[in-house]
Amino acid sequence: APSADAADAAAADVAARRQAKKDSKFVSAEMRPTAMKLHTRSQAPKEGQKEETKEAPMMKWEPTREGYLQFLVDSRHVYTALEEICASRPELEPFRDTGLERVAALNTDIEGMASGAIPAGSDPIPVPDVGEPGSTYAAFLRDMADGEGELAPEFICHYYNFYFAHSAGGRMIGRKMSEMLLDGHELEFYQWKDDVKEVLLPAVADDIDKYVLENWTREQKDLCLGETAKSFQMGGALLSHIK
Predict the structure, then answer these.
(1) What is the tens place of the pLDDT at every residue in 92-101?
(2) FRET label pair with 131: which of 64, 77, 182, 243, CA 20 to 30 Å apart?
(3) Helices 153-167 and 218-225: angle between axes, nearest 10 degrees
(4) Mean pLDDT computed over 38-46
């Protein structure tokens, strides 16, 4: 019969392999579960864990075309900050040209809504200045990633959650706004050149996993995870324009 020592060694080996697998999958093993704790069941039917809040559900929102255009302008300002930060820091090279970028699509949509082409035959709307939620969040991100020193782990949390939220709940919001305000027109903002859920996001998750495995201590991982609520709060603040 195998000795107790051998059994202990085998158990330790299984545990080590399990931990190594978890370490290599930071996004799916740690970032995503942390995010789901902050989602309600109505936001994420399969994985949401947070109690339902008293906030008005999306079907009771009363958006206007002007408010929606403001949301798009604020969103563009934040995506511009994310894209420029990734372009300016050498260690963020894997996060350039991922296919998730949204600034070019938003330029098209904002121009279309402003000119009255979206929806066809609508009245033109002047493009507003960036609102407070967008300018606050973009400035926050730039401050966090500024300078020559090591990149703050919290930045990766904001980066991933902002792109991920748009591909998930953001698309539901887009469909609702399209029905309510745009005669069913689908904005470029909600279209990607590849399958965002099956191809683009998993590829970025793999790049984050690789980056984390090669660069971060446990403490840095915890700093990233600890920023999750703030990333949702700051990203979610942009929705105030359409509620």
Answers:
(1) 999 999 999 9
(2) 182
(3) 40
(4) 63
